[in-house]
Amino acid sequence: MAGNEWINGYLEAILDSQAQGIEETQQKPQTSVTALRDGEGEFFNPTKYFVEEVVTGVDETDLHRTWLKVVATRNSRERNSRLENMCWRIWHLTRKKKQLEWEDSQRVANRRLEREQGRRDATEDLFEDLSEGEKGDGLGEIVQPETPRRQLQRNSSSVDIWSDDKKENRLYVVLISLHGLVRGENMELGSDSDTGGQVKYVVELARALARMPGVYRVDLFTRQICSSEVDWSYAEPTEMLTTASAEDCDGDETGESSGAYIIRIPFGPRDKYLPKEILWPYIQEFVDGALAHILNMSKVLGEQIGNGKPVWPYVIHGHYADAGDSAALLSGALNVPMVLTGHSLGRNKLEQLLKQGRQSKEDINSTYKIKRRIEAEELSLDAAELVITSTRQEIDEQWGLYDGFDVKLEKVLRARARRGVNCHGRYMPRMAVIPPGMDFTNVVVQEETLEGDGELASLAGGAEGSSPKAVPTIWSDVMRFFTNPHKPMILALSRPDPKKNITTLLKAFGECRHLRELANLTLIMGNRDDIDELPSGNASVLTTALKLIDKYDLYGSVAYPKHHKQSDVPDIYRLAANTKGVFINPALVEPFGLTLIEALHNGLLVDPHDQEAIANALLKLVSEKNLWNECRINGWKNIHLFSWPEHCRTYLTRVASCRMRHPQWQTDADEMAAQEDEFSLNDSLKDVQDMSLRLSVDGDKPSWNASLEPSSNDPVKQIMSRMKQPEIKSKPEVQGKKQGDNVGSRFPVLRRRERLIVIAFDCYNEEGAVDVKSMVTMIQNIVKAVRSDPKMAKNSGFALSTSMPLDELTSFFKSAKIQVSEFDTLICSSGSEVYYPGAEEGKLLPDPDYASHIDYRWGNEGLKNTVWKLMNTTAVGGEARNKGSPSLLEEDKPSSNEHCVAYLIKDRSKGFFQVMRIDDLRQKLRLRGLRCHPMYCRNSTRLQIVPLLASRSQALRYLFVRWRLNVANMYVVVGEHGDTDYEELISGTHKTVIVKGLVTLGSDALLRSTDLRDDIVPSESPFIGFLKGDAPVNEITDILKQLSKAAT
């Protein structure tokens, strides 16, 4: 039981004594009742003593309620029976805690071994190409337990500090903070556990960045909430925080889009406020909505400050795990740098909860969705260029818990990069300690005067005949609690959250008589109207606090006002300063520490678990005035380090040192858009083709894809031939030719589509071969359904998304008598390649920019050896496979390409249940510094590994960015099962049609050891529809129409 270690010790003593009293009472049931209650036994009963003397101090609310019922029971026999039952309950809790502690120690030990093995494997690969001297240096970095801190900043001297001469940069910065109630004024901090210091931080960061030289616009993305439960302001799509000053934007050049804005993106149920644990299934909806805004804004900013060229985000900065997940996907879709601030970390919270022993890992995950949160944080580490922390401890002891970050391996990789040595595709994000900023505009330097005493005197009544002096309203709300308001005030300001440790502070104050005599205590615990209306965790903390105040009779010495505004916070601190009081932050975990900066004091460091140490430190500060003055002076000396300008200057300097990247097209889509007249004829001809296709589909011939090639005397063909450009003849020529020359006139057709039907069902037999009959039949029906509706057929295109490589896909087309020209784009090899039909019939062109777009952190060199070793030496669960065991994998060279490493799973009948699941494989690759996207496909007969942010779902977002075909106008058709990237294809603003019974064999069972699908895919969504596998064409048409009406 957390916070009651002494009780745990007493329980252990009972267990060690083998509960002699309980055993003897079991042997003599006729005397147990009187022995337990009236003391008429010949032995000392530790159970009786524990129940009657100790249990009232336990924080467990359910036990406390039981204890109250026991005390109120008049029947002695019933009362004694209840006491004995309580003993057994507490005994069971203790045994359960011991079991959880043992499991936790085993887990930590196994994790330590896995990390050491991963580091060892990475080291072996890294040092193969070094000289003997370099090997010694590198190994020394691995072996050293700790490197001097000054070495961590070795590169900082070569980094240019951000200064006023950066004004010409005109940057566009994107911040993301999804959960909680976010607005610029009158922030409702403390209204719930999601609306706290992070909300205040991101809003003030956006404002401060917009005022920095060189920053033109800052967008802070959050969720739009149209609910009667919250204020109407949270439904506003845009809220201006500040405009850029004229001097920062060179006077007349200040654009109407400059400044800082809150952009609210609708995702999830529109009419509900959702806590952060419920938001996970809707993350991809947010990504698609944010992507649409960024693309529109990049074009607008391009017209204002980019000379007509799009202005892409300089950086996308995610705050917390949910925003980090979103930022990673946006970063991959836009190919721009990502920065992450964790604020509070899932693995650290899981460790703390497990140590408390109250809940099992399964219970914790059910309550906090902790596994989904950790998975998001791992993905964020994979994609982030820079991770910003507020303390060094956060790096070593919190981020160090993650698979994706190893302090020692990061030092080695940084040293190799500095020397220009190949890292074999291994990467670690850079960590930077940047203390959070603070707005000091409301802070006034107070000299040693009697002004404060005068204000307090007027508030307390003042001298007779003196006129009352105006004082802040919040002072009156606080001082009305005190019998003697002139005593120094101990101030704690936080949400009523268990981890804020308010109850320990109350106990420390209540049990120290000298402290109670010298000082008052003020608890600012958020805002509340009725405790019963608060979330259970917050209500429990407040209820316990009120009980402790009553227990220690602290009336007249403790203030706990129900309401305060954000603008009252400076006045609250000023009241504490005027009384020569002390600010305390007793939180058990405080990765951010905003209140520590707001307090503007230096002071004493104590263990938040040590109640006596807290009382002694507070007593020391309020009783020793010289120490109090020294701490105050030191706080003023260091205050400039935490100002927003200083924070933003350091922030922009760090971001500038990242590897800058943004979309760069060999063929400008906007230039193509300017050629509307030329392409209008091309589209008219396409309509002729569509009409011909409809005739072919609706005709009596079984071949729905009969040739549409006009006769040589056809004038249409003559016009088209003049518009065509030279095309490639075969796949080898695709790879050998200069890609910039391969852009044909067909490319803009995709850009000008109004909707795209994406066929993404994975129909394979037990051997992983294409189920031609099922797939062709469904494709035929989908095409007929689209073409049967004139409005839908007018500007609809088709795409095929598959794990098959191009050669195998074209073979499938030939066997099914399908022409590749019927599709506007082909997404092959699990999203590692994108092709478009060329102007010459039957020929395909690779996207000339896609390969460079997905190349980020692709470690092809180091992946093959590592994956081969892992899959053939490690069994399910992490145990080593027998040395004589046959290899599970065989390299699938025909399915591999520059950005796809493919393997065939041998002897599937024996090997299927021996291969690692995707989450286990990804964990082991992360431990070795490799960032990628592994997946099983084709009915678990293949393993394919593609770049980190490449996938079939991300390829759709690439088409949005590249050709401005909105994802919301895409219709993705999938089966009930699929490859392990199947979940990603369902969520988002695109419309999804799930065909039941079409795909009976899939690979998705090999995705995770724990089913997190409910946290990935929404259980109900207006964007998802269902069909039966044998549905007629008219039903397919109806479901497409129904989904087209879904709100976006």
UniProtKB/TrEMBL annotation:
Plays a role in photosynthetic sucrose synthesis by catalyzing the rate-limiting step of sucrose biosynthesis from UDP-glucose and fructose- 6-phosphate. Involved in the regulation of carbon partitioning in the leaves of plants. May regulate the synthesis of sucrose and therefore play a major role as a limiting factor in the export of photoassimilates out of the leaf. Plays a role for sucrose availability that is essential for plant growth and fiber elongation. This is Sucrose-phosphate synthase. Belongs to the glycosyltransferase 1 family. Residues 172-440 form the Sucrose synthase first GT-B domain. It catalyses: beta-D-fructose 6-phosphate + UDP-alpha-D-glucose = sucrose 6(F)-phosphate + UDP + H(+). InterPro entries: Glyco_trans_1 (IPR001296), SPP-like_dom (IPR006380), SPS (IPR044161), SPS_C (IPR035659), SPS_pln (IPR012819), Sucrose_synth_GT-B1 (IPR000368). Pathway: Glycan biosynthesis; sucrose biosynthesis; sucrose from D-fructose 6-phosphate and UDP-alpha-D-glucose: step 1/2. Residues 793-995 form the Sucrose phosphatase-like domain. Residues 484-606 form the Glycosyl transferase family domain. PANTHER family: SUCROSE-PHOSPHATE SYNTHASE 3-RELATED. Gene3D superfamilies: Glycogen Phosphorylase B (3.40.50.2000). It holds the Pfam family S6PP. Homodimer or homotetramer. Its EC number is 2.4.1.14. Keywords: Glycosyltransferase, Transferase. The lineage of its organism: Eukaryota, Viridiplantae, Streptophyta, Embryophyta, Tracheophyta.
